[in-house]
Amino acid sequence: MALTLPHPRLPLPDGGTAQWAAWYEKELGWATVSAPGEPVLLRTGLRFDVLELPVAAGHAVLRRVGPTGPVALCGHRMRLLTAPGSAEEVPALLEWLEWGSVPLDLRATGPGGLIAAPAPPGTTASGPVPAGGAAVWLRPPAPGYEEEQTLPAFAGVGGRGAAPDLLRLVAAAATECHRARLIDSAGDVRIDGVQIDRTNTALPKERQTQPLAFS
Q1: Whole-structure pTM over 0.70, yes or no?
Q2: Which is nearest to 80 in space by CA: 32, 157, 150?
């Protein structure tokens, strides 16, 4: 099924940019970076981290895991907001799940990062376009300061009962990123020397039967 992407947005007057920044700061308590005539950016690692992956893989993940926290689209990328500190856990989780040595188009952003701020819910005006393209909310955040309770968190390090489990989210994301990579690859695809049928996106039998390693 073809994906519909947002049209590029035209620049807003400086007042519109300030309104966007004010909404995020006052309604959600999220830190922003903004300047006259420039796109509004959101700081990661303070109130949320981000798990980013291709749009097609992201939609498959959402079908698998069900409700998550806020989700944004930016060009051909999907950004799933996760609990603060989760970006630091992702590499170790991928290793534990035995995806550490597999190339995945999966990126986790935590402290010190910036993402383009999508238009606040209910906003019809357009804003300046970031370098990566227009950003829109697929699952927008609800006003208030309780949004963090819905963000996927690692239960092993203080995850909250109401939040989806980060391990399950990362496992689904890795699987779908791998599946998308096989589908998009041209020519023969080989994993550990085993030729993969591009029409069959299941893992090779050798990887399916390999036990998980616990440390």
Answers
A1: yes
A2: 150
